[in-house]
What we know:
Layout: E1 4-15, E2 18-30, E3 34-38, H1 45-52, E4 61-63, E5 66-69, E6 72-73, H2 79-85, E7 90-93, H3 107-116, H4 123-136, H5 142-147, H6 155-167, E8 173-177, H7 185-202, E9 205-210, H8 213-219, E10 222-227, E11 230-236, H9 246-253, H10 272-276
Parallel strand pairs: 3-9, 3-10, 7-8, 8-9
Antiparallel strand pairs: 1-2, 1-4, 1-5, 5-6, 10-11
Helix pairs in contact: 3-4, 3-6, 4-6, 6-7
Amino acid sequence: MTLLDVENLWVKFPTRQGVFDAVRGVSFTLGKERLGIVGESGSGKSMTGRAILRLIRKPGIVEADRIALEGRNLLDLSEREMRAVRGQQISMIMQDPKFSLNPVMRVGDQLMEAYLLHNNTSKAQARAKSIDMLNAVSIRDAERVMRAYPHEVSGGMGQRIMIAMMLIPDPKILIADEPTSALDVSVQRQVLDIMDGLVKERGMGLIFISHDLNLVSEFCDRVLIMYAGRIVEVCDAGKLHEAQHPYTRGLLNSLPRLDQPRKYLDVLARDESWADAPSVGGQA
């Protein structure tokens, strides 16, 4: 089942030197799966996620043949209608999510606000739902965390709180933009396991944006590799290390591997022709 269908997506920014194309002709579909998007900084990964939710600020321009959520083209919706989509149907965890929390509001108030915004219910029910979600993301003593301010929780707990906040409206799709980049390895694994369990239980679609190829190959089902705003290759995550495109090979060879230790890692070489090649479609 296709949840999201993106066709020929462009994100453009006018500059003094002309129009800069941050995302160029990207097309892919998302089902009830974990879809990874990887690439270097500046490759257009985060811009793609933001463009889906129409979060590109002016003077940025988003163009596409369609960005369809279960057949409904999001480009045809008014801003008011998009506010109903954001959070309730598609949620997004930004980079360093702990810093997306309001520092002067208690954690519980922010969770309840996220739920009440999309549900006509009582505060008591919203509070109970918030505590359930904190328990679902493996936070101990949820009652105490509800009363805490963001600066009183650790980085790993802040990540979990943001995941709970994004999932509390029960969205169909979750876009996670490097949600574990600020965490140490042990906490990173815990957060990924929590996200994986919630996605499977709820039958959601997940777009996992990262620059960590090893992490994506272990966690995701499919991977889109982006370079200079285009998709240059699409792989099954389990076969990422068998990728054929020279850019993907270069990314893989620039990473240290315990099973194949080398004295020197490769320096990533780039070819200008990759940026101008047609974008590869990422169909499920």
